[in-house]
Structures are given as C-alpha cells and as structure tokens.
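Exercise 7b. Backbone tokens:
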C-alpha cells in the first residue's frame, strides 16, 4: 500500500517556487539510487551529433561571419564616403587659395651666361643655373633613362600622381619605421621646384598634386622630363644636367657615359650629401643602386652594367676647377655695366685663346710645384695680351678650386723696378736718349737715400746701361728731373689706372698696381705707341644671335711717339739680352721686358713682350710673407719664358719696332757733337735686323700696328679697313 501511494504522489503535479515537487522528489530518489548503482553500471556514452545537426551549426557560423563582414563593408563604405568628403574639402579649401588655373604659367628659367673662347669653345656657364637649357636629344640618352629608372619608373604611364608608387613607398616606410622612400613622381617634383617652397605641409602637398595634374594636361611627357632635367639641383651649385656634367666631369651633357649618368641620377636623392665633391664613395655607392635599377628594368644589359661598374670613381674638386673660371668671374663682374640687368640667356664671346690659357696655367703651376716649398712662394698670377689689349690668357692664382681670389685683376701689389719703364719714357719725352749719361752714386732726396739692389755704384753710365742693370739711383734722379707728377701722368696715359703717389720713391715702384694694368701699360711699346686697353669681352649676344654689345677697339689713341717707343724697345731688349731679365731670353724671337722685385722679396715680377704678346708674371704670398730671395729675373722670368716659348712655337719671328728717327742726344758734361752721339747710339744699340715680312708697306721699318693704324688703308690701296675683330679671328 505504501509503494502505490508513493507512485501516485509522483505523478501528481504540484508547483512550488516554479519547480515541480514530483520532479524534485524523483531527482532526489535518483541520486540516492545512483549512489549504489554507480559502482556497477558503466558510464553512458554521448551520442554523436547527426549530420543534419552539424550542417545546421555551420550555417549558423557562416551567417554570423557574413553579418560581421557586411557590417565591416558597410562601415568602410561609410568611412570612405566621409573620408572622400573630407579630402575633397581639403582640396577645395587649399585649391581655392591658389590663383586661377587660367593664370598659371611656367616661370622663366634663371638666365644662363655661356662664356666662350675666341674660337667658340665653352669655357664656363654662369648664372643661377650654371648651365644651358638642353633638349632631350642634345643630352646623353643615358641621363633620362637613369633618372626615370631610379626616380619614377612609371613616368610614362601615370597621370602626374602614381598611386601604385605612393602605396609602395608608404608600405616601405611603415616596414622600416622611418622615411626611406618617397612617392612623388617626377611631375610632382617639377611642380615643387617650379612653384612651391620646400616646406612639408598638407597645403603644399595638395597644391603639388593640383599643379602636377595641370602640368600633365598642359605639356607632353618629354617636355616635362626636359624641364625637370634642366632645372633640378645636382649639388655643389649645379642646376640642370649641363651644369652638373661640366661641374663633375668637365664635359658637356651629350658626352656623359652610362656610369656618369647613373652617378648624376643618384644625386637626386640627396644632392648635397651625395655630391662626389663632398663624398665620392657615397656617390659611387648610390650610382651602383641606379645601375641595378636600370638593369632590372631592362634599360641596359648585363654587359653594359658590368662595364659601368668597373669605371674609375669620379673625384670632383670641392669647387669649380680650371683657371678659365678666373676669366668667367671677370666677365660676370663687367657684364652688368655693358648690358644692364641680365634677363635672358646670353652668350659672351671672349678674347681668350683656350690653348694659351691652358699653357699659361700649366707653366705657372709647374713653377710653383717645383719651387714653391724651397723658395717659400705659394701663389702666382699671369696675364698675356696682344697689341690691341685683347686678353689672351689670364691666370688669377695657383688653383681656382682652393682660392677664387683673382690676383691678376684684383690684387694691388708694388711693381718694384717693373715700373721704371714709365720713368724712362717720361725722361725720353723731354729730350733725353738711351745714351744720356748719369752718375750712379749715392744720392739723397730729402730724407730718402735710394740704394742699388747689390749695394754697388758704377759711376758714369748711360740711361740704357742704368735700365739694363736696374740701377735705382739713376731712376730716382730721373724722377726728380722730370717731376713725380709727370711720371704719374705718363703712367696713367699708357694704361695704369690705380692711384699713384707723386713722390720720389715712385721711381722704385712703391705705388700699388694690378698685374693686368701693368702688363697693358707695356703694350704701347710693342705696338708702336698706341694705347692697348686690356679687355676680355669681345661680343655679347642673346641665345638667338641678337648682338647686345660688340667691342672693336679699332681706333686706339696714340699715347707715345713712335721714336720714344723705339728707344724704349732698344733699351728693354738689352734688359733681356744682357741684363737682369736674361733668363727670359727666347729662342729666335726678339723680346723685351723688365724685372721687378719689392722690398724683402715680398713680390717678384717680370713683364715682357714680343711683337705678338705682352705678358706679365707675378709670384708672392697672399699674406705678404717674404720669399727666399726670389727676384723678378729668377722664377718670374723663367716662367715667362716657358709660356712665351710655347705661345710662339711654329710662328715666324717678327721684330719689334726698333728703328726710326732718333732725336738729338743730350749728354751731361762737356758738349759733344750730336752726330757722334747718334753714331754711338746706333753702334751701341744696334737694332735686331728687321725682315721684310715684318715691315709695313711704308718701308719705314715698323711692323704694321694693330687695327687701322699706320699702313692700314693707304698701304693696301683698296680702302679696306682692318679691325680688331679681323685680327682676333685671324682674318
């Protein structure tokens, strides 16, 4: 009875607190029963879910994933829309701050000044660019290929902005954790160079993109590349490929090799840091990266790459090299006075003979390298002009790369005894002759007592003897006889432009002058008495050939009488033949000149001339320190000879104007017959025989002076006038 009652109570539902009492009791009973049954009954295994259940669960998982993806896509789309709106807003904002696109134009390239020799050889390019603007076809094909390979390989396929390249650069920078790669295209770089500042701001970047799109719309790819290569900075002051080629390789851009093109292209990453003038190793390493890029893109073959890799390393000076740069500096100094402000590309034809320029540089440098250390001399200068004043060679110092100061045109130095020819000229103009006699003895002028360089005195001497031996006492006497002011006027008339002190010591060259003006003042002796104003600019034209300035110097004034010039030549020939300038004596060519040495051997000069060229040479130290007994008749005269010997090689000798009428001789002391004195002059100072080729059509024994002077028009009989241009061009 009790069991049935229990069973019955089990099936009667009763709810208390949300749970069935029957269930509660049943679970309780089961737990009690399970304690005894657990020891003998094995655990029941779970049944594996059916295939249908598994597919149901998979569908549920895929549904959840799809939902997540749909949400992500949705929000990305939303963010993209808002991002696009934001970018468009930024572009519109900064674009609105730019001028109207209708007013955009390519700014003029900074004008270039091309400086050429008398034969048309390019000596230098000056201006902000330092190089000519070239067409792509006028430069080595390796240059654009190398630049595209390393800077913008998709240049010919993108629209001004390269999204692929930009993404690649961003990825590389993220992976490296720093800025290692740029995403700007060549068009963007050109836009930045042409229109924008280098600052890195959002505004500048937006403007760069807009300008790039405008450039691509307005110009062809080749035009864009051409503008870029002609304006981009290559380091060491070189803008454009022409300037860079001449700066680093001393050759035009059309002659650049594959290895050199790779080096130029490599500089674009960091022009100043990678410049071969600063770090040749870094420049070479970067060039190898460019070569590898060119090879990978199939621009060059493996054999071409191997050849380029074995090319010698480029080592460039830290500054422009070559003495012709002294000439270029001089041209740029004088250009504004001749044509005003430079607003377009110009071509300046100079009077420089490039061969003579190189020979002069070689001679001066050889003298300093061989004797500089032992004689304590560190600098030198050389100027060579023709009878018209045209500068044929000008060396302003030992090495332009180490010092750009021009000692030939800008340095004021005492000429020493090289000034004496102007003292003697003033004396001859007042009636004295080479045979006039003076007493070489101690003299006192005020508180000044001049002495000869060897501290010896020779007694009675002729003026010719005194100049040959460079006697200071006689020169001082002549200054006091003619007057210091007269000497100053004579020197200025012949070509000295520097201010001179009108005192007795001017006889010994104590007033400072430049080597250029001193050499130019000797030229009237060589050309028969006409002023030869030193000049280096012959013609200035625009790029299209329009002549802005032309210098003929075809009517120089006469500054000394031909007879005075002849007597000076006779005396100065003796200086070279048997006097202090004997080291300058040339083989077969008659030459004249004068030595000069200043106090304590601070300056040593020799200025001499033939019928073709007047050349001055100076040696000394910039700080004024004394040399080791270097005199004008030593190192300067030897260097002068070395240069002039080469300059006259292969030319038929031409005599100086040594003949002509001689005025009566004024001899101090007892009177002497004038006829005897003239005979003595002819005997003692016999002119070198003048060949028929060296005489003018007048038969007077004078070589034809420069330009239209002397035997020009009448002698020719055809009325044709010879100009300086004809002489310079060899016509």
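Sequence design result:
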């Amino acid at each position: 009875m009790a069991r049935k009652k229990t069973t019955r109570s089990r099936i009667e539902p009763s709810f208390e607190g949300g749970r069935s009492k029957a269930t509660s009791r049943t679970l309780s009973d089961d737990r009690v029963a399970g304690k005894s049954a657990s020891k003998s009954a094995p655990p029941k295994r779970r049944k594996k879910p059916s295939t249908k259940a598994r597919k149901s669960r998979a569908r549920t998982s895929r549904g959840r994933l799809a939902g997540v993806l749909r949400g992500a896509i949705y929000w990305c789309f939303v963010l993209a829309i808002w991002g696009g709106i934001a970018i468009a807003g930024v572009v519109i904002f900064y674009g609105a701050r730019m001028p109207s696109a209708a007013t955009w134009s390519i700014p003029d390239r900074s004008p270039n000044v091309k400086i050429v020799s008398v034969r048309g050889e390019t000596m230098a390019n000056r201006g902000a660019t330092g190089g000519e603007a070239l067409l792509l076809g006028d430069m080595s094909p390796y240059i654009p290929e190398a630049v595209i390979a390393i800077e913008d390989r998709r240049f010919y396929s993108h629209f001004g902005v390269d999204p692929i390249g930009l993404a690649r650069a961003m990825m590389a920078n993220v992976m490296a954790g720093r800025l290692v790669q740029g995403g700007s295209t060549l068009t963007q770089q050109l836009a930045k160079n042409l229109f924008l500042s280098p600052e890195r701001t959002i505004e500048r970047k937006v403007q760069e993109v807009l300008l790039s799109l405008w450039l691509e719309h307005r110009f062809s790819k080749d035009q864009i590349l051409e503008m870029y290569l002609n304006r981009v900075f290559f380091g060491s002051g070189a803008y454009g490929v022409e300037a860079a080629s001449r700066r680093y390789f001393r050759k035009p851009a059309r002659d650049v090799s594959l290895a050199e093109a790779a080096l130029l292209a490599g500089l674009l990453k960091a022009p100043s840091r990678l410049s071969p003038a600063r770090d040749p190793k870094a420049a070479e390493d970067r060039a190898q990266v460019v070569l590898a890029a060119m090879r990978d893109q199939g621009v060059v073959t493996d054999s071409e790459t191997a050849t380029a890799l074995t090319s010698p390393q480029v080592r460039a000076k830290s500054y422009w090299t070559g003495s012709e740069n002294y000439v270029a500096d001089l041209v740029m100094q004088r250009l504004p006075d001749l044509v005003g402000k430079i607003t377009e590309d110009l071509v300046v034809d100079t009077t420089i003979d490039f061969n003579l320029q190189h020979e002069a540089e070689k001679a001066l440098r050889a003298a300093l390298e061989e004797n500089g250390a032992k004689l304590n001399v560190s600098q030198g200068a050389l100027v060579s002009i023709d009878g018209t004043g045209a500068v044929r060679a000008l060396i302003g110092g030992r090495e332009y790369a180490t010092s750009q100061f021009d000692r030939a045109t800008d340095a004021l130095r005492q000429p020493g005894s090289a000034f004496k020819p102007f003292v003697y000229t003033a004396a001859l103009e007042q009636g004295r002759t080479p045979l006039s006699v003076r007493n070489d003895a101690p003299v006192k002028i005020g508180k000044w007592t001049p002495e000869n360089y060897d501290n010896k005195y020779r007694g009675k001497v002729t003026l010719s003897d005194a100049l040959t031996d460079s006697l200071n006492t006689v020169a001082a006497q002549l200054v006091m006889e003619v007057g210091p002011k007269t000497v100053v006027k004579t020197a200025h008339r012949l070509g000295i432009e520097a201010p001179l002190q009108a005192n007795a010591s001017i006889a010994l060259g104590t007033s400072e002058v430049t080597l250029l003006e001193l050499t130019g003042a000797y030229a009237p002796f060589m050309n028969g008495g006409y002023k030869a104003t030193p000049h280096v600019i012959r013609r200035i034209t625009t790029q299209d050939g329009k002549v802005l300035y032309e210098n003929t110097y075809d009517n120089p004034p006469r500054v000394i009488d031909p007879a005075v010039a002849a007597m000076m030549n006779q005396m100065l020939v003796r200086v070279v033949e048997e006097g202090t300038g004997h080291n300058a004596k040339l083989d077969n060519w008659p030459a004249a000149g004068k030595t000069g040495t200043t106090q304590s051997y601070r300056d040593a000069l020799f200025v001499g001339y033939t019928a073709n060229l007047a050349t001055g040479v100076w040696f000394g130290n910039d700080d004024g320190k004394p040399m080791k007994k270097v005199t004008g008749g030593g190192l300067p005269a030897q260097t002068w000879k070395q240069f002039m010997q080469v300059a006259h090689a292969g030319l038929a000798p031409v005599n100086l104007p040594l003949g002509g009428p001689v005025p009566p001789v004024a001899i101090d002391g007892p009177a002497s017959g004038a006829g005897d004195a003239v005979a003595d002059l002819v005997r003692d100072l016999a002119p070198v025989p003048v060949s028929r080729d060296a005489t003018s059509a007048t038969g007077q024994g004078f070589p034809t002076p420069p330009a239209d002077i002397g035997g020009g028009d009448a002698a020719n009989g055809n009325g044709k006038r010879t100009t300086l241009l004809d002489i310079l061009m060899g016509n």
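Instructor comment: The two ends are 156 Å apart (CA to CA). The first strand starts at residue 15 and ends at 16.
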